[in-house]
Amino acid sequence: MRKTLILALIFGIVAALALPPIYLLPALWISLPGLIWLIGRAGSWKQAGLIGLTFGFGLNVVGLYWITEPILIEAAQFWWLVPFAVPGLALAVGVFTAVPAALAWFAPSGLPRLLVLAGTWTLADLALQFVFTGFPWNFWGTDVAIPGLIGTVLIQPAAWIGVLGLTLCIVFVASLPALGLRGFATSLVLMIGWAVVGGLRLSSAKPAAPAAIIGVIQGDGTAEFVSDRTAAVALFRRYLALSAKAVAEAQANNPKNLPIILLWPETASPFQLQTDAGARQAIAETVGPDVTVIAGMLRFGADGQSIYNSMGVLRGPGPLLASYDKWHLVPFGEYQPAWLPLQILPGEGFSRGTGPTTLHVPGIPPVGPIICYESVFSGQIIKESDRPDWIALSTNDAWFGNSSGPRQHLAAGRMRAVEEGLPLARAANTGISAIFDASGREEMRLGLGRQGNLVAPLPGRLPPTLFAYWGLWAPAVLAILTTLLGLLLVFRLRRLERS
């Protein structure tokens, strides 16, 4: 069993090579058949579950190593967490790999086992989005979000089945070589079919005409600006200077006189914009009275005690036109989960907003705001009953350093654009800022560690996608049907054996 677990760990590490930003997809065609083989060698479902846990541990230790980065920023206080954070989180997430492996053991080898594994793997990932506040990071569906045309083609089915549906497809197709040469050939044919379907959808997409000019501002401030008032004010002034340049560029390339919108990153303003008239005046004097600015900020509640991680919308020096409060907070980063008795964060942290919303601001297209971590929650970012025309994502990825974290976070945001059929503008304090159209095609990008702006016509929306209508029910039903098909084949094989 010891050698088996070592192999499971190796296969898990190999599988992590397919994650962003490496995108080495062939690694899954090695690691998944390897996992299937190891499950078949297990003497019991408990051993199979342990194999799955070990596989998931290897996968997530590599895929989540960047978790150490924000801890190191506060190393003086949290140094003791460094050796435990990544292995502990990898072990916890690995449980959601152990369950599908254990259930797949009950199915006989061959197609039934592949179907049960693919279906239950997807259901486990769906559970991972909700259990213990949820941590839907690095779903295998994002492995096909490869930068460039090939990735844009392969992510198109997410408009129907979401990133979790793509995960199911990946698990099944990459496992097929476990069936031998015929399985490998079938896998190749299915991948070609996948690309053809994606290409057809991409070529037939007819988005609405641009209704605004978007300027995405990236100031490249270090994570310390959150607690260093002097650094925060200096960064605010930098955002003013970059915004002035973005407005000049937008005005020079705006023959249709479209409204101009500037998007600042998370907590870009150290001032309370809802009450600080001086800060609003400074922004208005910099960008002009007709430019709309959507800025990350902090906001105090009416009680004067609760504090929210927010986005404020302003035009001119007057009161805010609208605001949005982040509702999917980062556990241990923005609040202390009640179910953990160990106190890690000082105080009570941030208060929670009311959920996804659409901001209707006169003069600009209706916008669906999301802040940082919220962008990884498939099917939970848009108020579908009041559908916006675009998504504004503000984040501060300086916490992740120059690691895989910002790249993985970017890939998640791109998937949300495809799922919802909405263009997405992403402003990241230190990168990666980007503009995606409603098909997930990257229009512009500003990389890590750079100051600057992205100015372009805001891509138009597409009609509501199937995923926009069905949400997480789409991949859930697909996963259940896949699992039931596997079980049906199991019963059929056993009936044939009896006869």
Biggest sheet: strand arrangement? 5-4-3-2-1-11
The name of the CATH topology of the largest domain is Nitrilase/N-carbamoyl-D-aminoacid amidohydrolase
CATH 2nd-level architecture of the largest domain: 4-Layer Sandwich
The proportion of strand residues reads 5-15%
Which consecutive residue ranges, at least 5 long each, have pLDDT under 50?
A: none
Count of beta strands:
11
Give the termini distance in whole angstroms: 35 Å
Report the C-alpha radius of gyration, rounded: 24 Å
Subcellular location: Cell membrane
Pathway: Protein modification; lipoprotein biosynthesis (N-acyl transfer)
Function: Catalyzes the phospholipid dependent N-acylation of the N-terminal cysteine of apolipoprotein, the last step in lipoprotein maturation.
Domain CN hydrolase: 217-460
Q: Which labels suit this protein?
A:
five-stranded mixed sheet; 499 residues; alpha/beta; 15 helices; six-stranded mixed sheet; globular; Nitrilase/N-carbamoyl-D-aminoacid amidohydrolase
What does this structure look like?
The chain is an alpha/beta fold and 499 residues long. It folds into two domains: 2-204 and 474-498, no CATH class; 213-329 and 347-461, Nitrilase/N-carbamoyl-D-aminoacid amidohydrolase. The protein contains 15 helices and eleven strands. The protein has helices at 2-15, 28-41, 45-63, 68-73, 75-78, 82-105, 111-128, 149-154, 158-175, 181-204, 229-252, 277-287, 404-420, 466-470, 473-498, and strands at 213-218, 260-263, 292-300, 307-314, 322-325, 367-371, 390-395, 424-428, 433-436, 442-446, 452-457. The strands form two sheets. It has a six-stranded mixed beta sheet with strand order 5-4-3-2-1-11, covered by helices on one side. A five-stranded mixed beta sheet has the order 6-7-8-9-10, with helices on one face. Strand 2 (260-263), helix 12 and strand 3 form a beta-alpha-beta unit. The model has no long low-confidence stretch (mean pLDDT 92).
